[in-house]
Amino acid sequence: MEQEILNRLRAQDELLQKIYTSAEKTRKYFMWTLIISVAVVVLPLLGLVFVIPTFLATIGGAYGV
Questions:
Q1: DSSP for the chain?
Q2: What's the predicted TM-score (pTM) here?
Q3: Band of the pLDDT at 60, cuts 50, 70, 90?
């Protein structure tokens, strides 16, 4: 009886390790997805902050404003 309980505990421990490993992989996947999404959205917006004033100055100079 006691040996059966120990065998079940070992089996559960192995399954918990597999679940933990899978959860960590999923967490890392979501983290990199978030980082890439922020880079794709925020970096172009920061670029526009510098490009728009230059563009407006060029357009204003062309029209004499």
A1: -HHHHHHHHHHHHHHHHHHHHHHHHHHHHHHHHHHHHHHHHHHHHHHHHHHHHHHHHHHHHHHT-
A2: 0.64
A3: confident
